[in-house]
Design a protein that fits this description.
- The chain is an alpha+beta fold and 337 residues long.
- The chain has one domain (5-294): SOS response associated peptidase-like (hypothetical protein yedk fold), CATH 3.90.1680.10.
- Helices cover 12% and strands 26% of the residues.
- It has helices at residues 11-20, 98-102, 109-112, 204-211, 220-223, 265-274, and strands spanning 5-7, 27-28, 37-40, 47-51, 59-63, 70-71, 74-75, 84-85, 92-93, 106-108, 127-132, 134-141, 144-152, 158-169, 176-185, 196-198, 200-201, 235-239, 282-284.
- Strands 2, 4, 5, 8, 9, 10, 11, 14, 15, 16 and 17 form an eleven-stranded mixed beta sheet that branches. Strands 3-1-12-13-18-19 form a six-stranded antiparallel beta sheet, with no helix packed on it.
- A hairpin with a 7-residue loop joins β4 and β5 (59-63).
- It starts with a strand and ends in a 53-residue tail after the last strand.
């Protein structure tokens, strides 16, 4: 699954990074709504690239708005017309329940390629790219849950394949744009952490193909893009501070490797001289200098991330969609589908 990620860059930095990967965006929509975020969670704002019109070759960046700003299916504030929300919602609904906030934050690749189902009506003409610096996932070790951050080895922007849709709440007069992140089977280097990972598009050709919605049709070439990350490009994954688990917490430390604790005073002295024991992140892909299983904090146990608690006001829980890669909060963390 992929429900927590980071984008702490300023708009001008994002534009520069996009140029580096030959992704040329014509404009930002609602750039004043964008805020750098070290800990993006469901119901937070995000930056998403899509075509302004499915048949026009004009790319724009939209910012999403948290659903917690809505109550009882009516708008509690005036919305700009071009905003994206971090999950797909049904095209017409009475109000956003807690279950509906979470049940489609991810779209499974095997469900997307099917010629039927929730995604069939939008996958041909409403594809997008979600921008981030990396994503968080939690490793379960006994009763403990250890957050990990995964990013590109070179620090490039991650471009996550997604779908978007526009919705109108019953009784509302304005549209809300929503998106979902597509997930696929985890590659072998991240399988210790979770059995699913987001689809990451890396080369300009793949990104251009994904964003080209001029035909309005789904094709086999698009389906081929929905695959685990190419290890030759390289990923790095490492444990980070547990404070990232609380929605709303913000810190640059959430994107930095957390030093492993010393096992003895001797190790502590060694750490002062040589650096923290076990602080080197596990490099994934490229020239492999050590796999994730070389770290004492890593083993083959997939798990889900802590789910944000529902807002108290006007929020009810509901059943989870069969396409979901996540679930409403539970007392125990269960393995994702």
């Amino acid at each position: 699954m992929c429900g927590r990620f980071a984008l702490s860059l300023k708009p001008e930095e994002i534009s520069s990074r996009l140029t580096d990967i030959q992704l040329h965006v014509d404009s930002w929509l609602n750039v004043d709504e964008y805020r750098p975020n070290y800990n993006l969670a469901p119901q937070n704002r995000a930056a998403v690239v899509r075509r302004m019109d499915p048949k026009e070759n004009r790319l724009v960046i939209d910012c999403m708005l948290a659903l917690k700003d809505y109550h009882q299916g009516t708008l509690t504030r005036r919305l700009p017309s071009d905003l994206l929300q971090s999950r797909i919602l049904p095209q017409l609904m009475l109000q956003p329940t807690h279950g509906s906030l979470l049940n489609t934050i991810n779209a499974r690749d095997d469900k997307v390629v099917e010629p039927r189902g929730l995604w069939n009506t939008i996958k041909g003409k409403k594809r997008c790219i979600i921008l981030c610096e990396g994503f968080f996932e939690w490793l379960t070790k006994g009763k403990d849950k250890i957050p990990h951050f995964t990013k590109r080895t070179g620090g490039q922007l991650m471009c996550l394949a997604g779908l978007w849709e526009s919705v109108t709440y019953k009784g509302a007069t304005e549209e809300l744009h929503t998106f979902t992140i597509i997930t696929t089977s985890s590659n072998k280097y991240l399988s210790f952490l979770h059995d699913r990972m987001p689809v990451i598009l890396t080369d300009p050709e793949s990104i251009e193909t994904w964003l080209d919605t001029s035909s309005g049709e789904w094709s086999g070439n698009l389906a081929k893009l929905l695959k685990p990350f190419d290890l030759s490009d390289g990923l790095v994954c490492y444990p980070v501070p547990k404070e990232v688990g609380k929605v709303g917490n913000q810190s640059a430390d959430f994107l930095k490797s957390k030093p492993a604790p010393s096992s003895s005073s001797a190790n502590s002295e060694h750490a002062k001289k040589k650096g923290p024991v076990g602080s080197d992140p596990a490099r994934l892909g490229g020239t492999k200098t050590g796999g994730p299983h070389d770290s004492p904090n890593m083993k083959d146990e997939p798990t889900g991330a802590p789910t944000p608690k529902p807002q108290k006001a006007h929020i009810k829980r509901s059943a989870v969609s069969v396409d979901s890669d996540t679930s409403p909060p539970e007392k125990k963390v269960r393995k994702a589908a």
